[in-house]
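Example complex used in Figure S2.
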Amino acid sequence: MATQVVMPKLSPTMEEGQISRWLKKEGDAVAMGEPLAEIDTDKATMEMQALTNGVLRKILIREGESAPLGQPIAIVGDADEDIASLLAEATSEAKTPSGQSQPALAPKSEPEPAAAPTPQPTDTRSNGRDDAATERLIVSPLAARMAAEAGLDLRSLSGSGPGGRIVKRDIEAAMKQEAPATPTASAGARRPAAAPTPVSAYRDEPISEMLRTIAKRLVTSLGPVPHFFLTAEIEMDRAAEMRKNINALDPELKVSINDVIIKVAAAALMEHPQVNASFQEKIVRYYEQADIGVAVAIEEGLITPIVRGANHKSLGAIAAEVRDLAERARQKKLRPEEYMGASFSISNLGMFGIDEFTAVINPPEGAILAVGAMTPKPVVRDDQIVARQMMRVTMSCDHRVIDGATGARFLQTFKRILENPLYLIV
Amino acid sequence: MAVITIREALNQALKEEMLRDDSIFLMGEEVGAYQGAYKVTKGLLDQFGEKRVIDTPITELGFAGLGVGAAMAGLRPVIEFMTFNFSILAADQIINSAAKMLYMSGGQYKIPIVYRGPGGSAFQVSSQHSQAMESWYAYFPGLKVVMPSTAADAKGLLKSAIRDDDPVIFIEQERMYGMKGEVPDDDDFLVPLGVADIKREGKDATIVARSLMVPAALKAAEILESDGVSCEVIDPRTIRPLDIQTIVESVKKTSRLVVAEESHPFCGVAAEISVQVMERAFDYLDAPIKRVSGADAPMPYAKNLENLAIPTADQIAAAVREVAYLD
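Predicted assembly (753 residues):
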């Protein structure tokens, strides 16, 4: 049966999408799961997959044109099926693209060559995650509630009900699968860089009345997230030397100081789980692994791709992953799960020569670490004035989750490890 | 316990209540000398005499209204409609007088009246004589609506209806008068109004059915059991007040609901049950609620078309398979 393909929601904040490129022509056969088009959202260029088998009968929104969520953009059906009524329905639903006086079918005079679309590496993992991320989730009320209670990400499931509806049995199957697969966090276990690290597991703890009141009062005193700031100055000579030595082993590694900072922050978070947490109104969520968001400046602004499970990863793996994420962030090729849901963030403006600054927390994360430039400074060591590479970091904390002393202890650990990175391996 | 027909159970209920309370009288077309078009009032004229078993002319509006007046004066009338199709003529007295009197008299006049008779489809009596009227009467505040599906329920519910101080619409099913069932030998056997009955326990899907659809739903449950699907069959018995709690509890257990009814679907009782379940148990539903209703068309006369217009056990079973995602 012929069906309309509608503009899917490809990012949590997307309201409309622009067809960057059709990957199929009218008359081409399409198989379920096959890429149909590339769509520019507010955040990235995403592939949209076909949700049914059939033939791409009609393209309703051409390359370069935009459509709001849910608007039909194409019709897929059998080769010889009559699609007249579906077509009439689709065109009556379609609103004229805003700000375009030309009829929708008039081709744009010059289709933008738009940075020769590099075909997104086809994901051969068959976990259904990508399919699910590109369509509206259809889920029964019961399944939605069960998934919420079990902390399951509905986007990671594929539904077995009509039209792909996620139903009770899908949740039960997923829970069965998850139960034995809970990773036993063997600290320092090296993981192959290629394997994707899942979103951190967590435990939720109810918020006490006292904490609720404190949270409310703090908010009324300073913005929606009650920030406070802790600054420390860190001697970086040993960390810098370690980085140099590592890179000498293999020039391909290209470990940066920021990668070292990510690794050290992850290690410190494991020692201070109270900091690896977020305030969620009725609960405080404590994450089991360090999913560290790394602020990356891009042309349109700022995005924080996430190094998941940084506590499990080697410096080399972190360096490679950060490079890949940053590159794809600049190309707007990140998938939502790659930039949403960090447990802690790091923002580094050292390369701009900034000595120190305060960063704004990315809610609902509990803290963000603002890293300044590493500069040689005179310091007193053993009653002598000597030059040392010093770096100032300022942690912004959400006071509803992290107290002053808690944050200070975390920063103390962070400083201790960074000043003597051998702690990473003891 | 005796095994008797629904017809006999209703007759027993009338007789026992009339013996117990001499303010009760029967009135309607052919209830006396002819002993009822469906013989529900058999033997009652002989036993209680013309003062308490009154044959009327073909004047539904008139005797429905006489009943309201008698009730206001302190009697407890049981008014028979030969079928509920004819109650359409009496609707003004039922809806505007019986249902409203307690309210509009500021509580001075209670109306302990029962309007009873067969409703729903019969056998090839065509469009005007095959109508399920329950959603009409259940719509109005002030009326209670009762629909039994077994001999025991028929007896126990009719006795409760007669003892109730509010007007009760008591809809029997013409096709079911001959169905037999066990009935307790107890002159005070009562089935309370407003309490649903779980006719069969199950865990995978809930079927709510009333009147003629109860045996169909039980048969569907049997068909499904051989496929390993366990159905809970709930008979609300009283349409208003509706025991939604029992239905909601069941849906919370099974997560799936099929509502079967003989009546037309539009603005029907199944629609009301569906929305109430949605309001109270939305987060428990694993599938959209499914209705199985009679055809949305006047009842055909032709036998083959009539059969197609009334829901069957197979259709109910198919609906359950759909909400259980089995096909």
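Chain A touches chain B through twelve residues (CB under 8 Å). The first helix of chain A runs from residue 84 to 93.
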